[in-house]
Amino acid sequence: MRRTFSTLLCLPALCLTLAAQDATPAETETLVKSAIAFAKANGKDAAIKEITRAGGKFHGHGGELYVFIYDMDGKVIAHGQGAGKIGVNQMNAKDPDGVEFVKDRIKLAKTKGKGWHDYQYVNPTTMKRQPKTSYIEVWDNLIFGAGIYKK
Length: 151
Description:
Layout: H1 2-20, H2 25-42, H3 44-52, E1 59-60, E2 65-71, E3 76-79, H4 101-111, E4 114-122, E5 129-139, E6 142-149
Antiparallel strand pairs: 1-2, 2-3, 2-6, 4-5, 5-6
């Protein structure tokens, strides 16, 4: 009994530690593939709605990990950081180092269909610019992606 009680007392600390862990590349790829599977099963509109819904099933790690969808012209179709980004053409967007990361994303999508690309982005949990790498995969002429921050 005493051992069970001690174990239960440690559970919240363990859960907090696990929640604070950084997202992994494998987890990021799985999230993108899950979003594509959701779109295939439920339709694009349902996927767009779920990806954009705050705290939805395609969000994790306190807001650091989320799915986005772009079309092949650079327009945001869905974004885990909110509906305010939807419809905005980001084709000429540059990171603080001048990297045209959306053009890079589209080039990767058109040449390989999936893969990783690097750029700088503001981390929504720290509000600081950090190196980021995103995994993208094309489905139905749309670019599904998610990224992780490099620490």
